[in-house]
Backbone:
C-alpha cells in the first residue's frame, strides 16, 4: 500500500480522472474527485450543485478578500476554503488520490505527496470529449477550451502558482502519447520505486 498522497491536476479531456482512478484501484487507496464536493456540502450545509457552481466563479482578489472575516468572503472563496479543509483532512487520514481543486497547492507543505499533472494534445482531448463525454462535434472545441480556461482561472486565482506549469508539479505526463493505462502504470511504477527508497 502507498504511503503517499497523490494529487492529480489535469487538462479537460486528457483522461486525468481515469488515470487517477486506475492508480487508486491499483494501490487500493481512496479516490477523491467529486466526492470532495459531497463532503464539503455536508460540512457547509450548502448543496452539491451550489458548490459546483461556486467552483466556476471567482472574485477579483482572493488575497484581498482574506482581510475580511470568513462571513464576508464571496461564496466562491468560502467554498475554496471549505474544500481545502476537506483536502487536508483526507490527506491526514492516509494514502489517497485527490483530483483537481488545487490539491497540489493546498498540500504543498506536506512531504509525503506526489503532485502530478496530466495533459494531452488538443486533438486527443477533442476526441475524448466527443466519444466519452458525448459533447456534440460542433461544440467540442469550445467546450474543451472553456473548461481549460475555467480551470486555469480557478487555479491561478486561488494559488500563487500557474495552472499546468511544470514547476508546480513533481511530474507531468502526456496521456495522448502514453495512453491512459501506460500513464497509470508509469505512475504506479514511480510510486513503488519511491517507496522502496523510504
Residues:
Amino acid at each position: 500500500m502507498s504511503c503517499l498522497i497523490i494529487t492529480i491536476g489535469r487538462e479537460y479531456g486528457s483522461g486525468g480522472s481515469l488515470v487517477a482512478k486506475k492508480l487508486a484501484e491499483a494501490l487500493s487507496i481512496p479516490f477523491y474527485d467529486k466526492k470532495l464536493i459531497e463532503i464539503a456540502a455536508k460540512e457547509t450545509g450548502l448543496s452539491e450543485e451550489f458548490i459546483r457552481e461556486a467552483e466556476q466563479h471567482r472574485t477579483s482578489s482572493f488575497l484581498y478578500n482574506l482581510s475580511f472575516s470568513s462571513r464576508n468572503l464571496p461564496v466562491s472563496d468560502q467554498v475554496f476554503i471549505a474544500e481545502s479543509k476537506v483536502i487536508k483532512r483526507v490527506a491526514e487520514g492516509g494514502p489517497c488520490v485527490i483530483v483537481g481543486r488545487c490539491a497540489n497547492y493546498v498540500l504543498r507543505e506536506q512531504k509525503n505527496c506526489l503532485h502530478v499533472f496530466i495533459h494531452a494534445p488538443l486533438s486527443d482531448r477533442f476526441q475524448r470529449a466527443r466519444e466519452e463525454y458525448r459533447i456534440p462535434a460542433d461544440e467540442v472545441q469550445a467546450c474543451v477550451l472553456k473548461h481549460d480556461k475555467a480551470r486555469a482561472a480557478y487555479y491561478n486565482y486561488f494559488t500563487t502558482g500557474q495552472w499546468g506549469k511544470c514547476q508546480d508539479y513533481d511530474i507531468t505526463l502526456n496521456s495522448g502519447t502514453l495512453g491512459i493505462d501506460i500513464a497509470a502504470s508509469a505512475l504506479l511504477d514511480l510510486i513503488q520505486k519511491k517507496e522502496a527508497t523510504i
Q: What stands out?
A: Residues 5-193 form a domain with the Rossmann fold fold (CATH 3.40.50.300). Residues 59-69 have pLDDT under 50 and may be disordered. The radius of gyration is 17 Å. Residues 2 and 192 are 8 Å apart (CA to CA).
